[in-house]
Amino acid sequence: MPIILVVDDSDVDRLLMKGLLSADVDWLVSQAKNGVEAVDMVTYALPDVVVTDLNMPEMDGMQLVSHMAESFPEVPVILVTGTDDSKIALRALRHGAASFVPKQQLAESLLETVEQVLAVRDADHYDERIVQLTTNTRYRFVLGNDPTLISPIVDRIQQGMIAMQLCSATQRMHIGIALEEALLNAMLHGNLEIPAEKLTETRNLLHEGKTSPIVEERRQEQPYADRTIHVAADFNRSRAQLVVGDSGSGFDVDAKWPASGDESINEEAGRGLVLIRTFMDEVLFNETGNELRMTLNNLRPVVTPAAD
């Protein structure tokens, strides 16, 4: 049973988040009133995910993110942000937060975000004996518009990174979330052209493991039915590169690709883009807007302590 630690100095907001997380899933939700209390609880028993508000006394959300990244990097932290906290949210992502949810989108996005982070966190570990034998890893996938394939592909690529001990747990989680967002974008926006007003509901259903009626309908219809997604992943000891392309009509990159992720941080449709741009060093669309290339340089390898 996953343990979710909710941290907020407001009793009302804390109970609201607990209610949202307890509604439809079998999770144990614990609570802390500030960062100091949260650290004490984490030290006693590690949760699977921490969800924290930003503005709190004694130790605020940003300080908690930094502390968790340094002392408990295996525990992902999701930051809940206010309307005017976009720059702070981006800074938190760069300092180790796994994701963020704008406070005005809690009802629509909190459950989905926690489910996403948990899924990415739960990649299996490989036999460490093969680590030193691997210098690079490449994956190539071609998939149809089956949402149930997204998590296994993300897991498979993460397992390859674990096998090579390429990067820290935080970097690996960031890459996994960026890849999942790119795959969802390629499938829902690119291939199936799901209307914007139905995207939040569709994503929530998929992350809960449920069937989306509009996805199933369009998978059987032309021109959507025959469209595919191409995925390429290339890793070496210093760089990770991911390419996700769809068969849709794309978009006008010059007109719609924002100069900065800040422009769409509080829009649900742009939240995935913010995560990708923050977690990866280079993010480029092709000219037609139906292929996304993501690169992360300067991977931080896992250091295995020497045996006594």
From TrEMBL:
Keywords, ordered alphabetically: Phosphoprotein, Two-component regulatory system
CDD domains, sorted: HATPase_RsbW-like, REC_NarL-like
Protein origin, superkingdom: Bacteria
Keyword Phosphoprotein carried by entry: yes
Domain Response regulatory: 3-118
Stretches that traverse the bilayer: none
GO process annotations (BP): phosphorelay signal transduction system
Modified residues (4-aspartylphosphate): D53
Keyword match Phosphoprotein: yes
A UniProt-annotated Pfam family: HATPase_c_2
PANTHER family per UniProt: PROTEIN PILG, STRESS RESPONSE REGULATOR PROTEIN 1
Name of this protein: Transcriptional regulatory protein DegU
Species for this entry: Stieleria maiorica
Gene: degU_1
